[in-house]
Each structure stands twice: as structure tokens, then as C-alpha cells.
Amino acid sequence: MSPIIDIENVTIEYPGNGARVLALDGATLRVDAGETVGLVGESGSGKTTLGLLAGRLLPRSARVTGGQLRIDGQDVLALDDQRLRALRRECLGYIPQDPVAALDPTMRIGRQLELVLHGLPSDTASLRHHLDSVQISEPDRVLRLFPHEISGGMAQRVMIAMAMARTPRLLVADEPTASLDSHVRTEVTKLIFNLAAKAGATVLWLSHDLRSVSRWCERVVVMYGGKVMEDGPAAQVLRHPTHPYTIALAASDPARAEPGQRIGTRPFDPAASGTEMPSAKLAVGGGR
């Protein structure tokens, strides 16, 4: 059986002040159906670019200059518009980091959910069922609201309902709980993985939260500078890392610090690891 994600030596660049800016630099990743994979790394490591690449959702300025990409056996880079829309509709589900920005501010929640369900039952009872599935109370009231009238946590539950409405085979979640408080974050994370397991969906979870990745993902892929640095079982990679960058990343995890302990940084020299990038010090924080 072919992997659901098969990315081989992909290079993506953006135009920049007279020089190219590499977002992915020979990235390679294979994910089998049903796996839960956490994609980790500091901001700018290429996580979001790789996640958007799965559905060819990158900005127009992005140029794929090398490599191959297959999703569910299809050569995504070669698909025409019609077949690409079909792939996105029938195979992919996306949960964004900023749910309020992802929702259309001019449309009520119910109407946006109807559009997602095009070709499937979209009567009021069906819409209510999808909001019930993400534990939204008073779904009939929420269906009538505009995005600005609901909280960030509820907006993210709406996005989860939309992403799972067509039972995707691949769910890409890009920092889906980063904007939520800690209590809501735990509830939403559990909800996403439970729904994905029920649907039999493969999960690609992009995150800075190493503790959450360790708990929910079977496998961890570590990125830096548009490349995959380390890849393996979550327990092995995060507890006993072998690559110098992964060691630096794990050491900067706030969850490992004692109360009152100052979190330092460890120098990581990419040149010593075979990557053609300047030396850097690691800092874990928000952003993409």
C-alpha cells in the first residue's frame, strides 16, 4: 500500500530582494495511512509550508523548484484545477491556527458549513449534528451567528466540524490550539484526535508544544531550515534525541524546566550537521 503522504526531496522558494528564500530545502517525508505524526521545529523551520503543500495551498509567489509530492497516490503537483479541487474536497481536512481569520466574516456559521457539505445532506438537522459532534452547546443558535459573535474556542470547534464534515483521509492541523487558553487547549486537542481516530484519518499535527505532541502523536518529525532533521517514534525522539538540533529543541522545552528555572538556549551549528545555514541559537515561542 502506498503512503498517504509521499514528499520526496521537495524544494520551495520565494522571491526576495535579489536572492531566493528557501522555505523547503530538499524536504522528504512519508506518512502511512492511519498514522498520527507530530511535525515540530522552531518558527521558520518549514512546518506550515509543508502542511500547505499537501493541498497545494501555497501563495502564488511560492515556486516548487524540485522534488515530488504524492497525496493518497496522486501526483499533486501535476493535477489540473478540477482534480485538485476533488482531492481537497474528498481527501483533505485543514484546521488552521487562527480560526476567526479562517472563517468568512460576512457569512453566518450555518451557511459556511452548508458550503463545506456541498453534495452531502445539509438540512438543519445535519448541520446541528456536525456542531454537536464538536461539543458545541446550543447548536441552533450558533448556526445563526457570524464569526465575530463567537469566542475563539468556539470558532476553532466550528473549524474542526468543517474539517471533519466530509470524513477526510488526511487531517492537517497547523498549531490548532496555539491561540486558546490551557484548559480549552486540552479539550480541543483531545476532541481533534478522538474525531480523527473515529474517522480513521491520518493526522499531521504541526506544533511547538512538545508535551502535547509526545502525548498524542505516535511519531515525531523534527524540521529545521526546510529540512527534516530527525524522524522516529515520539517517545524515542523526544526523550532520547540523537540529532544535535533535536537535542537543542528538547532542552528549550518549557515543560522540562523546574519552577523558577530560567530556560536557556543551546547553540546549534547547522554546518556541523551538514546543512548549509549559519549557526543559530534556539528559541521556542509562538508563531509559525
Care to describe what's here?
The chain is an alpha/beta fold. The protein has helices spanning 47-53, 81-90, 99-102, 109-116, 124-133, 139-143, 152-164, 182-199, 210-216, 234-239, 244-251; strands at residues 5-16, 19-31, 36-40, 63-71, 74-75, 92-95, 170-174, 202-207, 219-224, 227-233, 267-268, 280-281. Helix 8 links the parallel strand 7 (170-174) and strand 8 (202-207). Mean pLDDT is 88; it is low at 275-288. It comes from Taklimakanibacter albus. Keywords: ATP-binding, Nucleotide-binding. This is ABC transporter ATP-binding protein.
Which labels suit this protein?
288 residues; alpha/beta; 6-stranded mixed beta sheet; 11 helices; 33% helix
Question: In a nutshell, what does this entry contain?
Answer:
This protein is α/β, with parallel strands linked by helices.
List the helices and strands and how they pair.
Layout: E1 5-16, E2 19-31, E3 36-40, H1 47-53, E4 63-71, E5 74-75, H2 81-90, E6 92-95, H3 99-102, H4 109-116, H5 124-133, H6 139-143, H7 152-164, E7 170-174, H8 182-199, E8 202-207, H9 210-216, E9 219-224, E10 227-233, H10 234-239, H11 244-251, E11 267-268, E12 280-281
Parallel strand pairs: 3-8, 3-9, 6-7, 7-8
Antiparallel strand pairs: 1-2, 1-4, 4-5, 9-10, 11-12
